[in-house]
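Q: I have 147 residues here and want to know how they pack in 3D. Can you give me a structure?
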Amino acid sequence: MQAHIFYNTDVPKYLRRTGFYTRALKKGLKQFAKQNIEVNVIFVGEREILRVNKQYLGHHYVTDVISFNNQRPPILPPGEPWGFGDIFVCYPVARKNAKKFNHTILQEMLMYVTHGALHLSGMDDHDPADRAEMDRQAEKIIQSILA
C-alpha cells in the first residue's frame, strides 16, 4: 500500500503526523493494505468538504470525513498499482469535535482517517450496531498507534 497524505488546509505542523495516519490506514484497510494499492488522505477545510459532499453525495452540509472507494480498472495489468480510494478529512470539524468529545485533535483526526479506511475495507455504519462496531475497531486501532 502506498499512502499519500495531503494537507490542503492550515493543519498545524505538530498535527502533521504522516506516519501515524499511514499506520491508521494500514490497520483500517486490513487485508487490502497488503495489495499494491494507493490511498489518498486529504485534509481539507469546511468549504472544501462541503463542496465534495454536495458534488458527489448530494448532501448540503459540512461533515467530518468522506471516503470514496474506486473500482479497479479492468484494463490494468495484474500487480499494477491502482488508486484504491480517497479519504477527505475536515480539519476544522476535527478541532471542534475534539473539544466536544474530550479527545486530543490528533486522536480525532486519527479517528476520521481510521473510519475512512474501515469504510474502504468494506465496513458500513448505516445502522447503530454497525456504527458501534466501526467505532470499537477504530478506537482499538488508535490506541495501538498511540501506545
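Q: Anything worth noting?
A: The chain has a mean pLDDT of 94. Helices lie at 18-29, 46-57, 91-101, 105-120, 128-146.
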